[in-house]
């Protein structure tokens, strides 16, 4: 395998990536072209087609930002392969390459790889990656917030609806600058300059918004007095599930997070059964917020590495 022939991700690669995702529908939030494109610089992502699979990897993420499970910062960072037999490709790569790890690996792959004849001889180890498990919800529950379990969510939503003279808008090219202005204000208030992860997220969001028309995701915003109070964007992940990539609200507007979540789903993706709201990254406040919406299930992910 010649990894030197791999390419960086560019907008012109969208059709290729989408062809793989249509043939092999993903279950985890990482695998949409929008998500991979907007985060490509954070991971320094490269891709290559190998044995009818799409491989995405980074040569230096462990040297710059993340801690390797194996302890070896020279390891290559791989996402799980996209194709007809990802388990066999993972085994093949561990045979061909010495220092590598696979991250964000869904349960469907980890269940099968443990039964592979080469799993023990390659000295492989699977590590739960709880901070990156995806939260998956029934869409109808997020639209209607039924019963006592959603009482607090309904209270914040109703407070926003009653307190503010708001306008809900579907995102178009005309509103992108309004959204970017809110993102800038949000980052100033959250002091993104002092938090590398928030700063990198801000850059990723701008990258997506600057290419809104080409990437083709769906979004919405809520305006109060011609000022953007909240926004969100997402897209279809597979045939019955959509994924929310970003959701932000100005802290001056109480209930704005609950409002944008609710109104977006009431006005978009009306036939979609499930909503993937991505991971909590181990952030306590984010975990509490995501758990408050009572997920139907978690899409579990793991790290596969070689024990030394």
Written overview of the protein:
There is one protein chain. This protein has 308 residues and is an alpha+beta fold. The protein folds into two domains: 3-133 and 302-306, Gcn5-related N-acetyltransferase (GNAT) (Aminopeptidase, 3-Layer(aba) Sandwich); 134-278, 3-Layer(aba) Sandwich (Aminopeptidase), CATH 3.40.630.30. The protein is built from 13 helices and 14 strands. The chain has helices at 14-23, 33-38, 40-43, 61-64, 86-96, 107-113, 139-144, 151-163, 176-190, 196-210, 212-215, 256-267, 284-292; strands at residues 7-8, 45-50, 53-58, 76-78, 100-106, 124-128, 134-138, 166-170, 218-224, 227-236, 241-249, 274-276, 297-299, 301-306. The strands form two sheets. It has a seven-stranded mixed beta sheet. Strand 11 (241-249), helix 12 and strand 12 (274-276) form a beta-alpha-beta unit. The chain is globular and about 65 Å long. 40% of the residues are buried. The model has no long low-confidence stretch (mean pLDDT 96).
């Amino acid at each position: 395998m010649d990894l030197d022939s791999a390419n960086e991700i560019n907008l012109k690669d969208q059709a290729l990536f989408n062809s793989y995702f249509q043939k092999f529908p993903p279950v985890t939030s990482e695998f949409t072209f929008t998500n991979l494109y907007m985060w490509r610089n954070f991971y320094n992502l490269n891709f290559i087609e190998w044995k009818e699979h799409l491989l995405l990897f980074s040569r230096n993420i462990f040297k710059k930002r993340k801690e390797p499970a194996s302890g070896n910062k020279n390891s290559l960072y791989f996402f799980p392969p996209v194709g007809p037999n990802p388990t066999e490709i993972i085994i093949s790569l561990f045979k061909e390459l010495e220092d590598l790890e696979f991250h964000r690996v869904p349960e469907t792959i980890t269940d099968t790889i443990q039964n592979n004849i080469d799993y023990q001889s390659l000295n492989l180890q699977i590590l739960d990656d709880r901070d990156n498990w995806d939260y998956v919800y029934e869409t109808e529950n997020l639209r209607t917030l039924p019963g006592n379990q959603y009482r607090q969510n309904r209270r914040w939503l109703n407070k926003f609806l009653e307190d503010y003279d708001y306008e809900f808008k579907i995102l178009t090219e005309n509103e992108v600058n309004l959204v970017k202005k809110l993102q800038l204000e949000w980052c100033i208030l959250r002091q993104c300059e002092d938090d590398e992860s928030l700063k990198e997220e801000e850059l990723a969001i701008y990258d997506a918004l600057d290419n809104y028309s080409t990437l083709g995701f769906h979004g919405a915003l809520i305006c109060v007095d011609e000022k953007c109070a909240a926004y969100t964007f997402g897209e279809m992940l597979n045939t019955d599930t959509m994924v929310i990539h970003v959701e932000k609200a100005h802290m001056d507007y109480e209930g704005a997070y609950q409002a944008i979540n609710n109104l977006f789903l009431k006005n978009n993706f009306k036939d979609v059964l499930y909503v993937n709201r991505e991971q909590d990254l181990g952030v306590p406040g984010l975990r509490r917020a995501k758990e408050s919406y009572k997920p139907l299930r978690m899409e579990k992910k793991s790290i596969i590495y070689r024990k030394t």
